[in-house]
Amino acid sequence: MRKVHSTFMASHKKIDKERVFWVVLIIAIGMGGVIYNNYLDRLPQHYTIGTIYKLYQPPKGNPVAAFRYEIAGKEYKSSIDYYGYEQLAKSGATFLVEYPVYHEGAGLLLFENPVPPNTTPPLLGWESKPTFY
Q: Which of 2, 75, 104, 127 is 20 to 30 A from 20 (CA-CA)?
């Protein structure tokens, strides 16, 4: 009887250690993402023009706009949820994209800044946010 009890306790401790490991790992990954995003936000930002090419609704969550933008001849693609901007988010619509210097793939579409048709950005984007209206 004693041997069964000690085996149970050993396996119970193993499960607890495993749970703790996974919880700590998930928290560390989440905190790492927050820290990285804060780092990107603090870098100098440049601006270019992004075009929405697809709108879709995932099974869970808010509606999403997929957009593309170009910097120095290289195309980048990203997506952003457009909840609250349903009137503006249309396929083919153009908006400013803010991106951190040296991290061009981390661009963020700015729905508050629509871009007039036939506007062409500089090859490396604008160093400060342009105003069109």
A: 2
* Residue pair 98/110 in contact by the 8 Å Cβ criterion: yes
3-state secondary structure of 99: strand
Contact 52, 93 (CB under 8 A): yes
Q: Residue 97's closest CA among 88, 109, 79, 113? A: 109
Cβ proximity of 100 and 45 under 8 Å:
yes
Element (H, E) at 106: none
Share of the chain above pLDDT 90, in %: 51
Residues 61-74: tens digit of each pLDDT = 899 999 999 999 99
At a CB cut-off of 8 Å and minimum separation 6, what does 129 contact?
47, 96, 98, 113
pLDDT in tens, 26-36: 888 888 878 87
CA distances from 113 to 13, 48, 77, 103 (A): 55, 11, 18, 21
CA distance 75 to 118: 18
